[in-house]
Structure formats: structure tokens, C-alpha cells
């Protein structure tokens, strides 16, 4: 069992908390504060225990100097100040004299947010490659390290693995909650247990399919990845997305688990991926060469419903259609309606699926919405999660 923030005396200590504050920002305006709110419990606890709180997070991907303006964490510091009702001091650098002075002058309960950790990626990808010196430097700023960024728990970065290698450490309340909920799917999940997998790529889901296919009763396939399976099953998929190098993998699965893998029987097609285009309902043997499959159809929803109605456990990762465009949103929206009207324990695996839940206002009806799409999948694959593995045991 991993140590948590509650296993340490935080009084007067400089506590570095790695958060996941990777929120969508447009023109300096935060579009979704879900991840910020998810970090509050751990931050508030540290302040309540009289800690000096130092926050680290990444935001977006930094490829050039121009990205620094776009992906500064300054708006996040302002939002955090409002939510905490306490000024959060923003330091616009990732290292240096200004940062060190600010930390040395901290009083108990003060909060500092350091600039985007990925600014360090401009100089040899020091953050993303877990540069040893950078990890040691950040660790030198504090006394205790708490990882509360589940979304990057599967990454070996300087701001998680690097710091944890050099300080007494533990996990925050968010990571603890994620582990507790995801473990329900890996250790004797209540049956019947059905998995819904969508998104665009089969390659993103190979590990989780291989690991869970013998634990789940059924796997319902939607989204762009369905067309690689349909191609493997011998159907013409028109101009739909297809990973040709994964067709043999899909064919093998369909041959071996034909009673467990449930594919769409009808889809919504168009010739372009944009709003206000003519759309068609097509059975999967009717797709024209110039048509792209962009959502599951009403008959497929009826079939999926039959597998979901009596479930006791449902896991969903990946939208089943291009839900950002109204014409292709019905499948994802109706599937949310179906699963939230069951008595099942429902877990949604982060990323685009979590965004769909919020978009269609179902967030209060899902048992658990993971804050990490890729991290939740890798947890369920039961592979190594470097930034979690490094955390001290109790």
C-alpha cells in the first residue's frame, strides 16, 4: 500500500504537490476547470496542516518559444486563487533565483504555482525525458513530494519520477481515489461486466483488450476503431478510418472471441467531417466508397442496450462517434443515457470520454470519471506505472 499525504507531518514543511492542471485555455480563458477542482482536496489538506505548498504541473506540449505564451499557467494560478479564496503566487519560471527566493520567503499555508514544467522541454526535453539534474533541482526546493497527477502517473517525467526519487513521497487524495475505483475493475469486478471501447485507434487499446477480454463478459466496439474491426470482418468501410497494420490483430480477436466482441450493425455516415453536412443511416454492408463512418446508428444502440441493461459493472473509454459535431453526437449521448439508467457501477476512462460526459451533463450520474485517459488504460492493462511504482510503501 502506497504512502499518502496523510502519512506525513506537514507542519512547517515545504510540500511539493505535482498536480494535473492541464486544462483547455483559449485566449487566456480557461474553458473547463474540472481538473483544477479535482486538485483542491489535496491542496486544502496541505494548507490545513500548515504546510508551505509548492505546486507543479504541465500544460499542453511545448515545441517552440511561441508555445510559451499559449501554455503559461498564469490563468490557472488566478483560477486557483478564486477557488481557494487565497492568493496563489505565480512564479513565471521553472528554476532560478526568483523562484528560490519566493520559496524561501514562504509562510505556512502559502501557495506557489511554478510555471509549466514542460517549458523545460525546449532545452533537450529535460522534463519529458526525466533529466536527472532537473529532478534533483526541483526536489531541492521542498521537503516532501506528493504526486496527485493521475493523468501523468504512467509517464517518467522529471516532475514526478525525478522528484520522487529524491524526496520522502506519497500520493494525494485524487490519485488515491483513482486507484481505489480502478481496482474495482481489475480485482473481481461484479458481473455481468461490460466494456465499451471507442476512440479512433485500435492501437491505443490493444493492451487493455488483451488484458480484460477474459475478465469482461462483453466488449462493445464503437468509434473510429470499429472500422478496423469491420474491415477485418470482411465489410467494405468506404473512406472510414482504418489501421491496416492492425487488421490481422482484429481478425484474430474476432475469430477467438466472436461471442464477446460486439460490433456496430449500423452507422451514421457523411462524405465530410464538418457541421451541417448531409448524413445517412447505413447498415454496415451498405457503406459507399466516398462515405466516412462517424457515429454508431440507432439499431446499434438498441443492440448495445441489451448488453448493458442488466450489467453490474461498466467501463467506457473512447467516444463512439465524432461527438464534437452535433450530427455525429447522438451515439455517445444516447449511450450515456443508457448506462446512467442502469444499476451498474459505471467508470469512464478520462480524456475525450470524460469531456463528452461533461458536454452532455452526465457528470453527476457516473460512479467515477477518471482524470487520466491513457493512465486509466495502462492501469487496467496492469503494466508498470513508473510515477506510481516509485512512491514509498507504508
Description:
This protein folds into two domains: 5-173, Rossmann fold (3-Layer(aba) Sandwich); 188-381, Rossmann fold, CATH 3.40.50. 35% of the residues lie in helices and 16% in strands. The protein is built from 15 helices and 17 strands. The model has no long low-confidence stretch (mean pLDDT 95).
Short key terms for the protein model shown above:
35% helix, 2 domains, 394 residues, single chain, elongated, alpha/beta, 6-stranded parallel β-sheet
What are the low-pLDDT stretches, counting only 5+ consecutive residues below 50?
none
**What is the architecture of the largest domain at the second tier of CATH?**
3-Layer(aba) Sandwich
Supply the CATH class of the largest domain: Alpha Beta
Rg: 23 Å
Q: Oligomeric form of this entry?
A: single chain
Give helix % range: 25-40%
Number of helices: 15
Summing up helix and strand content along with how strands pair, one would put the structural category as alpha/beta
Summarize the structure.
By secondary structure, this protein is of the alpha/beta class.
List the helices and strands and how they pair.
Layout: E1 14-18, E2 25-26, E3 29-30, H1 34-48, E4 52-56, H2 65-70, H3 74-84, E5 88-91, H4 97-104, E6 111-114, H5 132-140, E7 144-147, H6 158-164, E8 169-171, H7 173-186, E9 193-197, H8 206-212, E10 218-221, H9 226-232, H10 247-256, E11 261-262, E12 266-270, E13 280-283, E14 292-296, H11 298-308, E15 313-317, H12 330-339, E16 345-348, H13 351-359, E17 368-369, H14 373-381, H15 386-389
Parallel strand pairs: 1-4, 1-7, 4-6, 5-6, 7-8, 9-10, 9-15, 10-11, 15-16, 16-17
Antiparallel strand pairs: 2-3, 12-13, 12-14
Helix pairs in contact: 1-3, 5-6, 8-14, 9-10, 11-12
